[in-house]
Each structure stands twice: as structure tokens, then as C-alpha cells.
Amino acid sequence: MISRRDTLKLGMAAGAAAALAPTALSRAAPAPEPIITRPIPKSGERLPVVGLGSSATFSAVAGSEDWQRLRNVFMSMLEHGGTVFDTAPAYGASEEVAGQIVRESGLADKLFWATKLNVAQGGSADPARARAQVETSFQRVGKQVIDLIQVHNMGDVEMQFSILKELREQRRIRYAGVTTTFPRQYELLEQTMRAEPLDFIGVDYAIDNRVMEERILPLAADRGIAVLAYAPFGRTRLWEKVRGREVPSWAAELGIRTWAQYFLKFVISHPAITCATPATSRPANVVDNMSAARGPLPDRAMRERMAKHIETL
After folding, report:
1. Using CA atoms, how far apart are residues 98 and 105, in angstroms rounded to an integer?
2. pLDDT 10s per residue in the chain (313 long)?
3. SS (H, E, C) 220-247
4. Other residues' Cβ atoms within 10 Å of the Cβ of residue 247
5. What is the value of pTM for the model shown?
6. What's the first-to-final CA gap in the chain, in angstroms?
7. What is the chain written as a DSSP string?
8. 106 — phi, psi (to 5°)?
9. Burial bucket for residue 2 (CB in 10 Å: 0-12, 13-18, 19+)
10. Which residue of 7, 21, 54, 58 is 20 to 30 Å from 94, comparing CA positions?
């Protein structure tokens, strides 16, 4: 059975063989296609459509001693056109370790740094604790201005988002928003999108998880709210579904060579998605992910073909 790592190895081997062919040696390598970007509706600032998340495997490595691997992950993302990094105090050591890495490496100002706020317990959040968590996030990344802070998992939105609005007015943060990946909170998310001046939302969206297409993504487009797509691989769900299977040959029409590119191109082809942030702790996976942000994206007919193929597996 072929894992994501095995697929990448096969692709690199094929690439190396092609590079040694006489025809390849006789001509210059073509320039890479430009990375796809999308505007943040409230400002027009453009972001690459693929970035980096820090839950799951990233968080696990952050809790170990292998920080060099994470440093290489950041370098790989930046070298291949990515800038968006999404983290949270709740992701174990992720925010703290990532902050130290980018400070020491001089990368902090090259990244669009998105973190979160949530100290809600039992439905309510203490304002002093919320402000303290925000200040800790500033200290960790070492930036005078953080690009984006969102209320994590809709925790006491009334109180915690009021703090973010204050910080935005003070220009200590550039954008503010809310997140959830819990279906039980989707109704509250929709209500908040209508009631609050959100710049961003962060939600779960994948080729086999399209609930957001029904109400949330159209509302985001209508309200001018940027969208970060979380769990574009369904966490591990999609990898389990395609284990041992090859990417369909017709996907090559879009330049797709791997399942990661297949899943990501589907997600970012929705016009309401600003950026997908898959988490990984492997530089090779970052390069693979960023490849999805180049070349053609599927149109509506191809999106349905891609989704139906996954349904048959």
C-alpha cells in the first residue's frame, strides 16, 4: 500500500529521472507557475491560497525536541510561496515553539501569523485571563502587530470578540474573527457572521465534508468575510480512504500528481475560500501542499467529478 510519503518518493524519483534525460538537459527548465492568491475581502490584501496549520502532527513534533524539522517546514513553505501560518494556544506547544523558531530564524515578519483566543470555561470567559492569553501570544511571536486573532471554537464570543475588536481598533491586530469545527456550533457561527464585524472565519471544509457550502460559505461571500479552511484532509479520514489507491489519471488535467494536491485543489477552488491550512511536520509535505496553489483549479463540473470519485472509494 502506498502512503503519502511513498507517493512523494516515487514522484521525486520520476522527477530525477526526467532531469537526466537528454531532452531535458538540452533546454532550460520552465519557470514555475505563479502561486494563486485570494484577496481578504475587507482590505484587498492578497494571501496565498495554501498555508500551514499547527495542530495534529505539527503539534506532536512541537512537543518533542525535533525543532529543526519544524524550522525546515517554515523555510520550505516560504521558499515555495506560502506565508499563512495558523496556530492557537490550545494546540499544545505549537504556538510557543513556532514563535520561538520564527523569532530566532528572523521569519516572523515574513509570515501572516494567525492565532486564536479562548479561555472560556463553562460557557463564560474571564476578561483578565483572556487579555493575559493575548499578551502571551504577542510575547511568543515577538511581533508588534499580529495579523489575525480569532475566537477559538466560538468561546464566549460576546466577551472575547469585544477584546479583539478593541485590539483591532488599537491596531495591535490587523484582523479579527471566529472559528469552529463543531457542527453543533454552526448555527451560532452563522448568527455571529450576521451580527459582528468579522474579517475572518475558520471552519472545517474538505472534499467529503461539504456542509459549509450550504449556508456558511455563501454567507461569507455575501458579508465579505475571509475564510480559512481547516482540516482539508479530513484530519486522517481522507488518507485512510485513499490508502493504496492511485490518483485518477484524469486529474493530470489540473496538474495533480498526489492525493494532497487533489484534496487541496478541490478546497481552494471554492471561490469563498481564502486559504487552506493543512497541518504537517514534514518539509516534503509542505512542498507537496504548496504545489496545489499553482496551475489550474477545477471548475464546477470537475469539482463534482472529483467529489464523486471520492464517494466511490
Report:
1. 10
2. 344 555 444 444 433 333 333 344 335 556 678 999 999 999 999 999 999 999 888 988 888 878 899 999 999 999 999 999 999 999 999 999 999 999 999 999 999 999 999 999 888 999 999 999 999 999 999 999 999 999 999 999 999 999 999 999 999 999 999 999 999 999 999 999 999 999 999 999 999 999 999 999 999 999 999 999 999 999 999 999 999 999 999 999 999 999 999 999 999 999 999 999 999 999 999 999 999 999 999 999 999 999 999 999 9
3. HHHHCCEEEEECCCCCCHHHHHHCCCCC
4. 17
5. 0.90
6. 15
7. ---HHHHHHHHHHHHHHHHHSHHHHTSPPPPPPPBPEEE-TTT--EEESB-EE-SHHHHHHHTSS-HHHHHHHHHHHHHTT--EEE--TTSTTHHHHHHHHHHHHT-GGGSEEEEEE---BTTB--HHHHHHHHHHHHHHHT-SSEEEEEEGGGTTHHHHHHHHHHHHHTTSEEEEEEEE--GGGHHHHHHHHHHS--SEEEEE-BTTB-GGGTTHHHHHHHHT-EEEEE-TTTTTHHHHHHTT-PPPGGGGGGT--SHHHHHHHHHHTSTT--EE--B-S-HHHHHHHHHTTBS----HHHHHHHHHHHHH-
8. 70, 30
9. middle
10. 7
Grid coordinates given for 210: 461539504
